[in-house]
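Record 1 of the preview.
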Amino acid sequence: MKRYPLVGEKVVVVTGASTGIGRATARMLKGLGWRVFPTARSRTDLDLLRGEGFQPVELDLSDPDSVDYAAKEVLELSQGVLGAVVNNAGYGQPGALEDLSRSAVRKQFETNVFGTMDFTNRFIPVFRAQKNGRIVLVSSVVGRVVIPFMGAYCASKFAVEAIGDEYRMELGPAGISVSIVEPGPIKTSFRKRVVSEASRGLEMRDSAFAKRYAKELSEPERTYSRPTDIFRKPPEAVARRIVHALESRHPRARYPVTGAAWFGEFAARFFPARFKDWMLTSSVIGREIEEG
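->
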């Protein structure tokens, strides 16, 4: 395993820090002595982050001008020094592929893929000049295996996985570590946000899956029974993997977090396609993996 230089300046930008994994990561890193610049989109979330003692930065990854502004602001606030970038921001557009508009799929990729890559690229010259730096991409178990009715989101996370692998090969010789974190079901508001996105660019009324949509989208939050709780972990479990990726001399290429994420890794490598399809459309596996 390659040994990477430890980050000289413990300064990090964490995207998507308004809730869940991003907020937990920002808090954990701050507690460990990092200077954290968390990003969020809404003024309400930015104010809440300020109330916790952070210097938040407004960022909408789907907007190139916002990406440009946010990257410049981070470097201005940090006086041109940065140790790491944690790319956590993103969302999930639900719906069968046949029911999604072109604009809905484009927005999914603008945020999860193009915006993430654009924002990261702004800091690579800093890392090259320092001869060290850490990049973390928060992907998903569905960046390894596909589940029904989340095809656009799965495709975006498959792209994030490929981008992370490419970054790792290109940037490793420069002393820049790149790690991919793969959560599975995490106790966050992810599903609630997925339901809220359903009405945007998704044709539900005349769909062959109209009944399925009506059922699924009537449950913005689910109550999980005890047998399935073993699949789910708090966002701090993901934050701990991110901390390892930032502080270890031997950061891993990938960090599966939950049992479902480990299952996804194994299934992607060893299961025949038809058997994998059957497993991932079953009631238990599908419901558990779909949250991250």
